[in-house]
Amino acid sequence: MLFEYRRIRGEQLTPKLELQLDAIARSVPRFKSGYLATIRSALSGDNFALFVAFEDGKPVGFADASIQPFKEKTMGSSGWTIVHPDRRGTVIGGKLFYAKLAWMASKGSSGVTAIAETPEGFKMLKSADFDFELEKPGGGFAGATNAGLTLDGRKRAELLIKAERLFGRSHGMF
After folding, report:
1. Helix or strand (DSSP H, E) at 165
2. pLDDT (tens digit, 0 to 9) for every residue of the chain, 174 residues total?
3. How far apart are CA 163 and CA 99, in angstroms?
4. Model's pTM, two decimal places?
Protein backbone atom coordinates (compact mmCIF):
# COMPACT_ATOMS: atom_id res chain seq x y z
CA MET A 1 0.00 0.00 0.00
CA LEU A 2 1.31 3.39 -0.99
CA PHE A 3 0.39 6.34 1.23
CA GLU A 4 0.64 9.94 0.18
CA TYR A 5 -0.24 13.12 2.05
CA ARG A 6 -0.91 16.33 0.14
CA ARG A 7 -2.04 19.86 0.82
CA ILE A 8 -4.92 20.52 -1.57
CA ARG A 9 -5.24 23.97 -3.17
CA GLY A 10 -8.50 25.44 -4.47
CA GLU A 11 -8.27 24.17 -8.04
CA GLN A 12 -7.22 20.69 -6.81
CA LEU A 13 -10.48 20.17 -4.93
CA THR A 14 -12.24 18.70 -7.93
CA PRO A 15 -15.92 17.75 -7.79
CA LYS A 16 -14.87 14.07 -7.75
CA LEU A 17 -12.45 14.55 -4.82
CA GLU A 18 -15.05 16.63 -2.99
CA LEU A 19 -17.59 13.79 -3.30
CA GLN A 20 -15.03 11.23 -2.12
CA LEU A 21 -14.11 13.31 0.92
CA ASP A 22 -17.76 14.03 1.65
CA ALA A 23 -18.47 10.27 1.64
CA ILE A 24 -15.68 9.74 4.18
CA ALA A 25 -16.95 12.61 6.33
CA ARG A 26 -20.51 11.28 6.47
CA SER A 27 -19.24 8.65 8.92
CA VAL A 28 -19.14 11.45 11.52
CA PRO A 29 -22.69 12.20 12.69
CA ARG A 30 -22.23 15.96 13.17
CA PHE A 31 -20.45 16.57 9.86
CA LYS A 32 -22.51 18.74 7.53
CA SER A 33 -22.69 17.50 3.97
CA GLY A 34 -21.61 20.26 1.61
CA TYR A 35 -18.97 21.60 4.00
CA LEU A 36 -16.21 21.04 1.47
CA ALA A 37 -18.07 23.06 -1.15
CA THR A 38 -18.23 25.99 1.26
CA ILE A 39 -14.46 25.97 1.82
CA ARG A 40 -13.52 25.73 -1.86
CA SER A 41 -12.95 29.48 -2.26
CA ALA A 42 -10.99 29.67 0.99
CA LEU A 43 -8.48 27.14 -0.35
CA SER A 44 -7.11 29.64 -2.83
CA GLY A 45 -5.98 31.96 -0.02
CA ASP A 46 -3.16 31.67 2.49
CA ASN A 47 -5.34 31.47 5.60
CA PHE A 48 -6.89 28.04 5.05
CA ALA A 49 -5.40 24.59 4.42
CA LEU A 50 -6.85 21.22 3.50
CA PHE A 51 -4.67 18.12 3.83
CA VAL A 52 -5.70 14.82 2.25
CA ALA A 53 -4.32 11.32 2.85
CA PHE A 54 -4.33 8.99 -0.13
CA GLU A 55 -3.89 5.22 -0.05
CA ASP A 56 -3.03 3.71 -3.43
CA GLY A 57 -4.30 6.90 -5.05
CA LYS A 58 -7.70 6.95 -3.26
CA PRO A 59 -8.52 9.45 -0.51
CA VAL A 60 -8.84 7.87 2.93
CA GLY A 61 -8.95 10.95 5.16
CA PHE A 62 -8.61 14.71 5.41
CA ALA A 63 -7.92 17.50 7.85
CA ASP A 64 -8.49 21.24 7.62
CA ALA A 65 -7.21 24.24 9.51
CA SER A 66 -7.34 28.01 9.32
CA ILE A 67 -5.46 30.97 10.72
CA GLN A 68 -6.81 34.42 11.48
CA PRO A 69 -5.21 37.65 12.66
CA PHE A 70 -6.37 38.36 16.21
CA LYS A 71 -5.27 41.64 17.76
CA GLU A 72 -1.48 41.51 17.42
CA LYS A 73 -1.26 37.74 17.06
CA THR A 74 -2.24 35.10 14.56
CA MET A 75 -4.48 32.39 15.93
CA GLY A 76 -4.98 28.95 14.40
CA SER A 77 -8.12 26.87 14.41
CA SER A 78 -7.93 23.12 14.02
CA GLY A 79 -10.91 22.04 11.94
CA TRP A 80 -11.97 18.51 11.12
CA THR A 81 -9.64 15.51 11.05
CA ILE A 82 -11.61 12.62 9.56
CA VAL A 83 -10.40 9.21 8.44
CA HIS A 84 -12.42 6.56 6.59
CA PRO A 85 -13.95 4.15 9.15
CA ASP A 86 -12.03 1.20 7.64
CA ARG A 87 -8.71 3.02 8.13
CA ARG A 88 -9.25 4.37 11.66
CA GLY A 89 -6.84 3.23 14.32
CA THR A 90 -3.88 3.62 11.96
CA VAL A 91 -1.43 6.50 11.80
CA ILE A 92 -3.38 8.34 9.08
CA GLY A 93 -5.35 10.63 11.40
CA GLY A 94 -2.29 11.45 13.50
CA LYS A 95 -0.25 12.39 10.45
CA LEU A 96 -3.04 14.60 9.11
CA PHE A 97 -3.39 16.22 12.52
CA TYR A 98 0.32 17.00 12.74
CA ALA A 99 0.34 18.30 9.16
CA LYS A 100 -2.17 20.97 10.05
CA LEU A 101 -0.48 21.83 13.36
CA ALA A 102 2.85 22.24 11.58
CA TRP A 103 1.18 24.34 8.87
CA MET A 104 -0.28 26.69 11.50
CA ALA A 105 3.12 26.88 13.22
CA SER A 106 4.81 27.65 9.88
CA LYS A 107 2.36 30.53 9.39
CA GLY A 108 3.40 32.09 12.71
CA SER A 109 0.32 31.17 14.69
CA SER A 110 0.77 31.89 18.39
CA GLY A 111 -1.99 29.53 19.45
CA VAL A 112 -4.42 26.90 18.24
CA THR A 113 -7.96 26.13 19.32
CA ALA A 114 -9.51 22.72 18.76
CA ILE A 115 -12.55 20.66 19.64
CA ALA A 116 -12.40 16.90 20.14
CA GLU A 117 -15.66 15.17 19.34
CA THR A 118 -14.44 11.59 19.67
CA PRO A 119 -12.18 9.66 22.05
CA GLU A 120 -9.65 9.38 19.19
CA GLY A 121 -9.70 13.16 18.71
CA PHE A 122 -9.23 13.69 22.44
CA LYS A 123 -6.23 11.33 22.34
CA MET A 124 -4.65 13.28 19.46
CA LEU A 125 -5.03 16.58 21.31
CA LYS A 126 -3.54 15.04 24.47
CA SER A 127 -0.55 13.74 22.49
CA ALA A 128 0.16 17.28 21.24
CA ASP A 129 0.00 18.74 24.79
CA PHE A 130 -3.21 20.73 24.35
CA ASP A 131 -4.72 22.28 27.47
CA PHE A 132 -8.32 21.25 28.07
CA GLU A 133 -11.33 23.11 29.27
CA LEU A 134 -12.62 19.75 30.49
CA GLU A 135 -10.38 16.72 31.02
CA LYS A 136 -12.54 13.97 29.57
CA PRO A 137 -13.74 13.02 26.10
CA GLY A 138 -17.28 14.07 25.37
CA GLY A 139 -17.37 16.39 28.36
CA GLY A 140 -17.72 19.73 26.61
CA PHE A 141 -20.39 21.55 24.64
CA ALA A 142 -22.65 19.21 22.65
CA GLY A 143 -20.55 16.16 23.53
CA ALA A 144 -17.23 17.75 22.57
CA THR A 145 -14.14 18.75 24.52
CA ASN A 146 -12.65 22.23 23.97
CA ALA A 147 -8.86 22.60 23.98
CA GLY A 148 -6.12 25.09 23.24
CA LEU A 149 -2.40 25.00 22.51
CA THR A 150 0.11 27.83 22.87
CA LEU A 151 2.68 27.87 20.08
CA ASP A 152 5.77 29.41 21.59
CA GLY A 153 9.10 29.20 19.79
CA ARG A 154 9.96 25.80 21.31
CA LYS A 155 6.61 24.19 20.47
CA ARG A 156 6.65 25.68 16.96
CA ALA A 157 10.11 24.17 16.35
CA GLU A 158 9.00 20.77 17.74
CA LEU A 159 6.03 20.68 15.37
CA LEU A 160 8.12 21.58 12.33
CA ILE A 161 10.72 18.92 13.21
CA LYS A 162 7.95 16.33 13.69
CA ALA A 163 6.44 17.26 10.30
CA GLU A 164 9.84 16.81 8.66
CA ARG A 165 10.13 13.34 10.24
CA LEU A 166 6.59 12.38 9.16
CA PHE A 167 6.64 13.78 5.63
CA GLY A 168 10.31 14.27 4.71
CA ARG A 169 12.26 17.41 3.98
CA SER A 170 10.68 18.03 0.59
CA HIS A 171 7.09 17.34 1.62
CA GLY A 172 5.80 20.57 0.02
CA MET A 173 2.85 20.60 2.41
CA PHE A 174 3.39 24.10 3.70
Report:
1. helix 153-167
2. 677 888 898 888 898 999 999 899 888 777 777 777 777 777 878 889 999 999 999 999 999 999 998 788 889 999 888 899 888 878 898 899 989 998 998 888 998 988 887 777 888 888 888 887 654 554 444 556 778 888 888 888 888 888 888 777 655 566
3. 6
4. 0.85
